[in-house]
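Sequence in, structure out.
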Amino acid sequence: MSTPLTDLFENGSDSQLAGDLVKRISAAHGNGVDVSELSEEEQVVMCVYMSHGVIGNGGFRYLFEHKPEGDPDFALTLHAFEVIGCWEAADALRDSLAAFPSSRPPSNLEKRLKQYSRYLKKVGWPTPEDHRFFAVMDEVDQRLAN
């Protein structure tokens, strides 16, 4: 049974609150949610929470290894970081997307990874954008919970 949201608002951590909201959204819409079919509020929670965890585990390289359902060019994810007002995270994502022609990752995963690998060879890993994102991860949690 889920913890009541009022309890999470009063006693839970920012990450507990966000994690519980993700579980509730997934339960309401089914696993493998197409984020483009969610309300803007749900999109923000799902896009920020999911990308935050992925980037935190392996930087933008890991993010670009994923093909989020309904957000193939990560435009909804970028918008979500802007909506919560985490400009540093949004800028790091925007700058990472700039590694691709027209700042749009190819939908073909193999092409996407090949293009991003070229960028990694130039700047190394973790990238400067990874470091910028890692530096604001706690702020992302806090802003998402707010």
